């Protein structure tokens, strides 16, 4: 445990001087000065457990009570003389008495003044520790006031079925009070004790939210959400207090398609996304060629496409992509009379993009990143059977919950979770994916095959959970309609049984509508497990079992694709 020998004497001299000043309780100009310190941590006045000492402008303060308001866990090991700290973000720091280095997430870092134990007091260089763990500090020597504040480090938003969800993230617990102000309409959040480390103004222009303004206030941070119209909102806390989520709901239900269904209007029936290496492509499917206005917005990066005189038949749709470039694609009926459909593509970084007509009439393509000019044509990964595009169909959705388990777990929710996991696994293997639904929405059975076909699917996999009046029915099973799909059904049921540890019920022939509609391509339906079985219901909602099932489907597909060509269509 011996550190640099040169440091030893210096540390000793410092401890002697600290001991001296603490013992005398008098002020001195030289080494250390005991001082009456007022400490405000995350908006709370904290009474120190003993004297603080100032040394070369650095405050050495007893650690007790200073970290709790910041959500930092502190443990002092008296025997080892080590103080261990864990920040809410999971950063770890160890300070050993008299050691001029701290260990931060396993790395050694020099500390301006080492931790010391004086007269049974454990003193830490509090500003350095707090700032290293992400918080902000200010010290006013005139009033002897030290303020330690969590920082608001990120503001982001995404569309959800409940409305626009604005997330405010901080380095420590955030406490917000809120009020609505009128004329112009705005929602004001006072986050006491925290300081802003985000842009002063963020232009949003999505749904009801025009912009977010952040500023310092007397008590902490004032966030103003500028609204386009009066709305309802809800504030919740996540990640034990470190994130505040504001859900902005629409004032009235979105316009129903029939009321905006004008004979002259162009109709957009779907928005699809195709991932490719280094880029991607949003496909807007309509009944006739579309004209669109395009622009970009910053922080976060977005491409905004407005299609005038158009009706969006699904009313709204969100695709969570997260493929490295595209974070989310949102499409909604932005305005009625005149009708405008707005498509927002949220990106992780600025990217070239190009809007052009697609190969089929009524297709508008937004090509991003590597897909722009010179990129390959339709994105394809090649298997031994040619290009592979997997349609992943999460059963049920929206108003159709599917089967419901004994404790109320809904088939539509667990199969969506498995389908979305499968999408990520397939993308990682550079296999293209068409999601039949990527949110809790109702998609009519007869539309599912069409969506797959439009996306160029070469394989179709429908994910379900089995149901039975016999509560003891158990195991995993696959179905196929066309005999050419039997090898795929057989390898998938094998692999799912293996990865999930469930019994296999084999691959059976059955005429489910989605399978009958997709007989041109290998097409199967996977009954992952029995949601009506008490034990399998709890497995189905377990994320690690969902992952295992998705891995099983992926392995089954890969095994099928590596089979000799004779086994394929
Ligand atoms: Zn089902």
TrEMBL record:
List the Gene3D superfamilies.
2.60.40.3500, Copper amine oxidase-like, N-terminal domain, Zn-dependent exopeptidases
Enumerate the Gene Ontology biological process terms. peptidoglycan catabolic process
Protein name in UniProt? AMIN domain-containing protein
**Annotated signal peptide:** none
Q: Which UniProt keywords apply?
A: Hydrolase
The keyword Manganese is assigned to this record: no
Q: Where is the MurNAc-LAA domain?
A: 449-558
